[in-house]
Amino acid sequence: DEKTGRRVFDLRMQSGETEFRPGQKTPTWGFDGSYLGPTLRAKRGEKVEVRIRNGLDEASTVHWHGMHLPARMDGGPHQMVAPGKNWAPHWTVDQPAATLWYHPHPHGETEQHVRRGLAGMFLVDDDRSERLALPKRYGVDDLPVIVQDVRFDGAELDSGHKMMQDVGFLGDRTMVNGTLDPYKIVHDERVRLRLLNASTARTYDFGFTDGQKFALVGTDGGLLDRPATMDRIQLSPGERAEVVVRMKPGERSVLRSYPQDNYGSSWHRRFSGGDDTFDVLQLRAADRLRPSPAVPSRLGELELPAPGNAVRARHFDLKISGINGRKMAMGRVDETVTRGTTEVWTVRNGNGMPHNFHIHDVQFRVVSVNGERPPAQLRGRKDTVFIPSGTTMKLALRFDGGPEFADPRTPYMFHCHLLSHEDQGMMGQFVVV
Ligand code: C2O
Ligand code: CU
Ligand code: CU
């Protein structure tokens, strides 16, 4: 936009029909289409404005998951958009290159709105990410991989009531970018997968069926300082990871989700998805591959808060009945933090059920997991983290930003990102003053 200097995006929330299976039209929701939404992309330092129109016949919101932005632009449950109405949040992108995403956040309805199809990616670039020798041709060797589980009830998406487990809705098959049985033909020696777990309840533990290792180059909020060689990456709902995979000419690599032994009691493993296996995505390498540069051994500086600077400690006890024994209440602010300060939050899951923890506005450092140094996949910038049963994590967070970030009247959320838990009240509110 010439007057405001903003990069403007238009997003329309709408209902439609999607043909996931030949000849079967399934009623779904999407942004600018019938299912999911376009990938938005902006560079650090840019001003952006998203013009949202709610073309649904229900009120909803659009939340910028992982984005550092003033609370009234956040798209949480306090920024409802009525049917037929518009909302145009704007902010300056001020954070490192990362794979972020957007989705609705209406209180008590988030699970349903996301599962009907409202979700999309928001990629942030910066000078460093544009220079680094990582695969970066979008859709060619830099692939968005939005993973969701679904279940069909005839032509319809299962409304969920039949298959609600205590973790929430679990589907019986997975999709990538809204496609069943997905595959991608690859023409490059290395591909970067931007993995997003956009499922409402299911946690995945991704690896390749031939056991091949991959390079983890980024977590929720940005690139790591150096790549980590892994053969598995566990992602709970809302988490992202960027991995670089090496292809072999003419061969197929299958990304699979494996059973997870940190998923809680054996009952939960068995009945809440922890023992399940899914083939998620097939990469088919062409017979001749274009050479790709090796993954750089240094990716850059991690911008992470220092726990030594913390001025305040807080504790959060996770239970499905509420965080710290309280159910979410729209009119109650649970925590008040001071702009420009660092805090350490201790989050504990003392019950047998898997949970995770997501904090709006910030990217945090995982300081420790049950007192130990976190594993490689938790050493980067994070906004959502899986907290297995019996686990205590210490997180360091910093509430940065200019004066527009101080807003005693508009809260940000922290919550379990198993969306039915969130909807049942496993969420709290904080304000930055
Ligand atoms: Cu991805 Cu509060 O949400
Ligand atoms: Cu969020
Ligand atoms: Cu939970």
UniProtKB/TrEMBL annotation:
It comes from the Bacteria. Residues 14-128, 159-248, 317-433 form the Plastocyanin-like domain. Keywords: Membrane, Metal-binding, Oxidoreductase, Transmembrane, Transmembrane helix. Belongs to the multicopper oxidase family. This is Multicopper oxidase domain-containing protein. The lineage of its organism: Bacteria, Bacillati, Actinomycetota, Actinomycetes, Kitasatosporales. The chain holds residues 64 to 496 of 513 of the full protein.
